């Protein structure tokens, strides 16, 4: 900063950011509350309150004065004199600002109404397996999205503009390469597993597991992971989620199924991974919009690292199976190896959210390829069911009996969230690549897991990833930590090694 | 409305009110969340979020355009053409608007900082029984309050200006009369009770009562009262409270003490009374600032009606004691009469919040008389401990051994809430006066209670009070329902009759 005028602008700018962050905190509490037990009859008023406050936040985020302040702070000598937090805050805010102000309010309003109707329509269409009733909505959403892409400006391909919203810097070119490599190797691996005579026994999992004991074990495992209960809480909801209001208040939920002890367990570890990320963001980012995960993909890498790499490993269960048994006396009488194998069954299936660690990626690749066809090749909504079914047949060897279990299964498109799906598999790939580095930098990594000494692992991740929040981009993080750009071979190698053991390939 | 211009102003005005109401809803959720389990480490950020959103709401509530709209809508012919909801909304909003805009923002800001510091200082001073450390803060708060009174304008006496904030229309003149009458009759009644040889046995209450069973019984009683669980919830907090976000979402809390089965029980019924009020407000008031209780006193009349008039009656326990016994097998083996008498012990004590139904009013009268002296007679903060102790000796026959159990016991003054205390006793007086009418209009009132048929009572109260929210003033309600202005004799007669029976006077 060179003059007092610029200092004043910086103060106004950071004050505005803090104000916007306060709205984000309030809205996050309102949503969390809605999903964890808000009374049914208050829903309409609550929706209106959320709409009103979101509108107010949008106004503050797109106000002309904010644009003026950004212009002042972006002047080369001014920018150069800012500290790294303020520099990043300017860059990030400019990106969001431009994205928001480029959409005419009227157009955006129409789109919000459309997607809100479409979500209800989707739910009905899915229930009735009636794609025809949803198609006109999807068609319109695609049209609006195309208008937005034009307004935002195309970088690379049209679909790149969408990808960049969820995974900053990610391109179709890069994803084609990594997903191509992944698909090529996972399809035969999945087939080899299916053909193996050594299929795990899972019958013993089908018992009634008391909810209270499940809850206690969930809390125990979170504590073991280093989840800070003075800076977070665990609740129940129909669909598990994590929400970081601020690093001192990170909330996760899980769902206890009495007939399935693994659902809440792995759900808790998954959301716990998201929570560790949010709880360990640097204090100097608190109160800024940088105090959150840097991308959907990096966030998902942490939930999946803790859930799959750690939580579904033999080393982990060598340590914790005894504790689990104690929580359910007389119920888990199989050896730990059988439990481990049962929680790692691979089985091509129709439904993404029920898929295993390996075939999950094929579900994502199918969605990625279809989204790319829509925005880069002009494929129409009417063509999607046939496309979907053909790809399931090709990659997973199975075909949906109806659209409810096929193209209609996910909520994402009804809300216009095109470009989001790749994050899930990016999470798996990032996790595997990070694990490779972790194994080298903490040579006793698996020994630590086997001893339940998880804190050094949490600390390593904090040091390398968590603390930075949005201060580093996904590729800065991955290349900085692993020395390489994203490479799908780490995931392939990890899966090959793991499943060769389990299925004796 | 006569012109389209005025219709447009009405639309802008009601839209602003709805927006303000959305902030109120969000802030209420944020506070509720803080008090029911928000993680400790998120408190600072949460406080800042609350401060920021409150500031935004204050801006919207004091914006010049709102004043302009009010002026348009207040024009006699325009106002006359408004419906009753809009008329009342204009009147109420004008009152709040004028009150807020008359205080210079800088002065208010200083005051907010002062009271926030004072509350911490008060907590420490109370713990150490050290009035001297709190006195300078109280002195400043009194000075600020006097400045506010000057800015708001004195109506009647200076203290009337404060009373009007919590009980619209209430005056010192009226309170002198009713509190005078009350004091004159309660002091000898309290003395007669103390002298009675027929003191209730309470020893059996001192047992360990399982928290789970207490919780179940609390939920059962709320259901019996007609609390709508689809429009509300019961949680736990250190200090029980009720908060109505909107009539479809009314939340209450209670506190379970394992050593005292009556604490959570009567606390739940008390907050349940507040909740019934808020849940049964008319649908056409939802989304406006009229969708809440009309005053602190009327609100308190409902909590105290349900807690004391119904909940501490022999008729109530004739019906519900068996249920209570079943929740605590083998623990409550005394006859119902003994239980009834034990929950109605009268005992002059030093601490207001632990006081019984009768002497409670004397605690309030003491505070009322002291507040009046401060603002109408210029009594100084330094004089309060001596004044306090003398009045406790005179009215209750006991003297605090220290200021922690005396003048420092309540939080109210540290937050500048002068004029609030009378509401508590107004609640008791309103409740007794309403009960008199209720007994005449529902001749089988006590039979209904004895049969656990509480819904006709809830419906009567809804019809007469709850539905109107802030659409009627306290005196409009009381005079409209009972045909008379507030009269303390109803409470005196109610207490005399009740305690003559219990203490065989």
TrEMBL record, chains A, B:
<keyword id="KW-0378">Hydrolase</keyword>
<keyword id="KW-0482">Metalloprotease</keyword>
<keyword id="KW-0862">Zinc</keyword>
<keyword id="KW-0479">Metal-binding</keyword>
<comment type="similarity">
    <text>Belongs to the peptidase M32 family.</text>
</comment>
<dbReference type="GO" id="GO:0006508">
    <property type="term" value="P:proteolysis"/>
</dbReference>
<keyword id="KW-0121">Carboxypeptidase</keyword>
<dbReference type="GO" id="GO:0008270">
    <property type="term" value="F:zinc ion binding"/>
</dbReference>
<keyword id="KW-0645">Protease</keyword>
<feature type="binding site">
    <location>
        <position position="300"/>
    </location>
    <ligand>
        <name>Zn(2+)</name>
    </ligand>
</feature>
<feature type="binding site">
    <location>
        <position position="274"/>
    </location>
    <ligand>
        <name>Zn(2+)</name>
    </ligand>
</feature>
<dbReference type="GO" id="GO:0004181">
    <property type="term" value="F:metallocarboxypeptidase activity"/>
</dbReference>
<dbReference type="Pfam" id="PF02074">
    <property type="entry name" value="Peptidase_M32"/>
</dbReference>
<protein>
    <recommendedName>
        <fullName>Metal-dependent carboxypeptidase</fullName>
        <ecNumber>3.4.17.19</ecNumber>
    </recommendedName>
</protein>
<comment type="function">
    <text>Broad specificity carboxypetidase that releases amino acids sequentially from the C-terminus, including neutral, aromatic, polar and basic residues.</text>
</comment>
<dbReference type="InterPro" id="IPR001333">
    <property type="entry name" value="Peptidase_M32_Taq"/>
</dbReference>
<feature type="active site" description="Proton donor/acceptor">
    <location>
        <position position="271"/>
    </location>
</feature>
<feature type="binding site">
    <location>
        <position position="270"/>
    </location>
    <ligand>
        <name>Zn(2+)</name>
    </ligand>
</feature>
């Amino acid at each position: 900063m060179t003059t007092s005028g610029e200092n004043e602008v910086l103060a106004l700018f950071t004050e505005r950011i803090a104000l916007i962050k306060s709205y984000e905190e309030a809205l996050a509490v309102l949503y969390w509350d809605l999903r964890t037990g808000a009374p049914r009859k208050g829903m309409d008023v609550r929706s209106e309150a959320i709409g009103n406050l979101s509108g107010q936040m949008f106004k503050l985020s797109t106000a002309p004065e904010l644009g003026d302040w950004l212009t002042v702070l972006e002047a080369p000598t001014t920018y150069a004199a800012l500290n790294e937090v303020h520099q990043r805050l300017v860059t990030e805010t400019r990106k969001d600002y431009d994205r928001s102000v480029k959409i005419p309010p009227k157009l955006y309003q129409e789109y919000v109404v459309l997607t809100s109707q479409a979500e209800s329509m989707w739910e009905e269409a899915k229930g009735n397996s009636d794609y025809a009733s949803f198609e006109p909505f999807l068609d319109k959403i695609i049209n609006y999205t195309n208008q937005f892409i034009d307004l935002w400006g195309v970088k690379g391909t049209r679909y790149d503009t969408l990808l960049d919203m969820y995974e900053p810097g990610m391109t179709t070119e890069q994803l084609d390469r990594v997903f191509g490599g992944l698909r090529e190797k996972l399809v035969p691996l999945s087939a080899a597993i299916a053909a193996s005579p050594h299929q795990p026994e899972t019958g013993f999992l089908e018992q009634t597991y008391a909810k209270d004991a499940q809850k206690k074990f969930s809390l125990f495992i979170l504590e073991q992971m280093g989840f800070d209960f003075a800076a977070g809480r665990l609740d129940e909801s129909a669909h598990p989620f994590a929400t970081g209001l601020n690093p001192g208040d990170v909330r996760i939920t899980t769902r206890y199924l009495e007939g399935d002890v693994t659902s809440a367990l792995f759900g808790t570890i998954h959301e716990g991974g998201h929570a560790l990320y949010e709880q360990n963001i640097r204090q100097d980012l608190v109160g800024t919009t940088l105090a959150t995960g840097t991308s959907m993909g990096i966030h998902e890498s942490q939930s999946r690292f803790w859930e799959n790499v750690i939580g579904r490993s033999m080393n982990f269960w060598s340590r914790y199976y005894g504790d689990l048994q104690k929580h359910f006396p007389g119920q888990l009488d199989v050896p730990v190896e059988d439990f481990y194998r049962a929680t790692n069954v691979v089985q091509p299936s129709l439904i993404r959210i029920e898929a295993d660690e390996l075939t999950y990626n094929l579900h994502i690749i199918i969605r990625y390829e279809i989204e790319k066809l829509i925005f880069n090749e002009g494929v129409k909504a009417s063509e999607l069911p046939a496309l979907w079914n053909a790809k399931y047949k090709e990659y997973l060897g199975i075909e949906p009996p109806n659209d409810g279990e096929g193209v209609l299964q996910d909520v994402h498109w009804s809300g216009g969230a095109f470009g989001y799906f790749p994050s899930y598999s990016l999470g798996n790939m990032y996790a595997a690549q990070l694990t490779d580095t972790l194994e080298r930098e903490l040579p006793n990594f698996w020994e630590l897991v086997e001893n339940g000494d998880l804190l050094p692992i949490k600390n390593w991740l904090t040091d390398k990833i968590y603390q930075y929040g949005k201060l580093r981009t996904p590729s800065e993080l991955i290349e900085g930590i692993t020395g390489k750009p994203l490479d799908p071979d780490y995931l392939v190698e990890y899966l090959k090694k793991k499943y060769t053991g389990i299925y004796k390939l």
